[in-house]
UniProtKB/TrEMBL annotation:
Pfam families: FMN_red. It comes from the Bacteria. Residues 4-152 form the NADPH-dependent FMN reductase-like domain. This is NAD(P)H-dependent oxidoreductase. The lineage of its organism: Bacteria, Pseudomonadati, Bacteroidota, Chitinophagia, Chitinophagales.
Length: 183
C-alpha cells in the first residue's frame, strides 16, 4: 500500500526557500509514496493550560496538525536555521504535536533538511534537532545530510528546485526514509 509522508516547512513566509524545497519533494518521491503538505500557520503559541490532561481543549488547528501527522508513516521537515538553531514556529508546532502517549511523532521516521541563502547555514539547526528526535524516540534518516546553500541559485523563478546535485541527494534521502518506514 501507498506510504503517506507528511512534509512541514520551518518557514511561514510566502517566498520561503524552505517551502520551495518542500514543494519540490513531490517530483522526487520514490515509487509507492505520497506527500501531504502540512500547514500550521494558525497554530497558537504553546500553552499547557489548553493541553493535557484534557486534550479536548486543544485549539482546532492543533487537533488538525496532530491528525495530519498521525495519518503519515514518516515526516519530512524542511527548515531554515535561525540564530544557529531551530526556528520558533516549527519548534512550537512540534511541541504541540509531541504531547501524550498518542503523540503522532513518537517513534516515527523523520527526514530533516534545510535551505539557507548563505554558505554555512542549517547544519547547526539540524544538530539542534537531534535531542528533540531523541526525546520523542523518532528515527532520523541521518544520511545523506542535506544543506541547500546559496539558495537563490538553486530554484527557478516559479520556485522549483533546479539544482541536479540537490535533487539527487533529496531522492536518496527520501529513499532512506522509505527504507526506514518499511523496516
Ligand atoms: C536568519 N537567517 C539565518 N541563516 C542561517 O543560515 N543561519 C542563521 O543562524 C540564521 N539566523 C537567522 C535568524 C533569524 C531570526 C532570521 C529571520 C533569519 C537567515 C535565513 O536563513 C533566511 O532568512 C532564510 O531565507 C529563511 O528561510 P526561508 O524563509 O527562505 O525558508
Amino acid at each position: 500500500s501507498i506510504i503517506n509522508i507528511a512534509a512541514i516547512s520551518g518557514s511561514l513566509r510566502k517566498g520561503s526557500y524552505n517551502t520551495m524545497l518542500m514543494n519540490s519533494l513531490e517530483d522526487l518521491l520514490p515509487e509507492g509514496m505520497k506527500l501531504t503538505i502540512v500547514k500550521y500557520d494558525d497554530v497558537p503559541m504553546y500553552n499547557a493550560d489548553l493541553d493535557l490532561p484534557d486534550a479536548t481543549q486543544r485549539p482546532e488547528p492543533v487537533v488538525k496538525l496532530r491528525e495530519q501527522l498521525a495519518a503519515a508513516q514518516g515526516i519530512v521537515i524542511v527548515s531554515p536555521e535561525y540564530n544557529y538553531s531551530i526556528p520558533g514556529v516549527i519548534k512550537n508546532a512540534i511541541d504541540w504535536a509531541s504531547r501524550g502517549e498518542d503523540s503522532p511523532l513518537l517513534k516515527k521516521p523523520v527526514a530533516l533538511m534545510g535551505v539557507t541563502p548563505y554558505t554555512w547555514g542549517t547544519t547547526r539547526m539540524q544538530v539542534a534537532f537531534h535531542p528533540v528526535f531523541e526525546f520523542l524516540n523518532m528515527k532520523p534518516v541521518y544520511k545523506p545530510e542535506i544543506t541547500v546553500a546559496q539558495a537563490k541559485d538553486k530554484f527557478d523563478p516559479s520556485g522549483k528546485l533546479i539544482d541536479e546535485a540537490t535533487k539527487k541527494l533529496v531522492r536518496k534521502k527520501l529513499e532512506g526514509l522509505k527504507e526506514m518506514i518499511q523496516g
